[in-house]
Design goal:
Length: about 350
């Protein structure tokens, strides 16, 4: 092999060896260093650390590959124009990957710690943060590869008016969603009922609409602008616990003191043994009216949240009916027709 051939081989081998060494270093750092950090963070039980490590595991080797090529390419016999193009491509890939990593980390922290701060766990804030980070990343990329961004910003400012007019409804829903979240009157997880009759749990508030899951597992989609101006009931504000009134009646010949004692015992048992009951709540019995053939009264129970009331009512009525039968307490028939009235008169 001639001296010229040896020189050309060395010029080509050196960049290749450099790339291989740096890539191997990237694999070692990802496997060893990040693995050590994972064990350290696992002992401290920090969820944010798992998020960061999860993002870095997919990017560390890529960044080392880009670094290796950026060091090796200038040592190859390439033309200046091609060399500049490859360097700009490497820089673009690096900046885009860093932008994607930052966006994933930022939105991940919103999902993890949103319930502890003023930021609710909704996709709206996550999408806004992701868009802002990507826009900043693209502007930095354009500036880094030599494209002047001042004319772009000016064009965006001029075109923003036309875009806002074209997307008036979408922007109205976007800002309405932000107003809903800032006001903190309703949040994901709240059970609400609209004046139009729809009700259910708020699942998510995105940039355009609010998703409400009904108890029947159907999804109601309400535009944020409509929800922002709607009259509604929030069953989770200021407290999730809910008072339940059960209307009952009893014959006139019943001893009301004994009735009240028995009913209270059953109500206490239901509150303490049925899932969704408030164990330390003292049931309330109130006589409300003299009916045509019965004394009317209500029993007030308390449920942990809206959906728990149905099981509580079910168990209370079932157990109370059984106890009334055991104690000989008669529940009068409703006077809805002549047959019912005649049966009461015969009794």
């Amino acid at each position: 092999m001639s001296n010229t051939q040896q020189f050309d081989f060395i010029r080509l081998a050196t960049p290749l060896v450099t790339i291989i060494i740096i890539i191997l270093a990237g694999f070692i750092i990802e496997k060893v260093v990040l693995g050590w950090f994972h064990k350290l963070l696992k002992r401290k039980s920090w969820r944010g650390g798992d998020l960061i490590l999860g993002v870095l595991r997919g990017k560390t080797v890529l960044w080392f590959v880009l670094w290796g090529f950026s060091i090796a390419i200038p040592k190859t016999p390439l033309t200046p124009g091609l060399l500049l193009l490859l360097q700009q491509i490497l820089l673009a890939v690096f900046l885009l990957s860093v932008t994607a990593a930052l966006a994933n980390i930022a939105t991940g922290f919103v999902d993890i710690y949103g319930h502890r701060s003023l930021i609710p766990q909704v996709s709206l804030f996550g999408n806004i943060i992701r868009i802002v980070i990507y826009v900043l990343g693209i502007l930095i990329l354009l500036q880094s590869i030599g494209i002047e961004i001042t004319p772009i910003l000016a064009a965006l400012g001029v075109g923003g008016l036309a875009v806002s007019l074209a997307l008036q409804d979408s922007l109205s829903n976007l800002f309405s969603g932000i107003q809903i979240l800032v006001a903190k009157q309703i949040r994901p997880g709240n059970y609400i009922k609209l004046a139009t009759g729809q009700e259910g749990y708020i699942v998510d508030i995105n940039w355009r609409n609010t998703q409400i899951r009904q108890l029947a597992n159907n999804m109601v989609i309400v535009p944020n602008a409509a929800l922002n101006s709607a009259i509604l009931i929030n069953y989770h504000d200021p407290d999730k616990q809910l008072a339940i009134s059960v209307e009952l009646s009893v014959n006139y010949d019943c001893d009301l003191e004994i009735l009240e004692q028995i009913t209270t015992e059953v109500a206490r048992e239901v509150e303490q043994t049925v899932a969704g009951g408030v164990a330390d709540f003292e049931p309330v019995i109130q006589y409300t009216a003299f009916g045509e053939a019965q004394i009317k009264f209500t029993v007030t129970l308390r449920a942990e949240e809206f959906s728990d009331q149905f099981l509580l009512k079910h168990e209370f009525i079932k157990r109370l009916h059984k106890r009334y039968q055991q104690e000989g307490i008669a529940i009068p028939l409703p006077l809805r027709n002549g047959l019912a009235k005649d049966s009461l008169e015969k009794v």
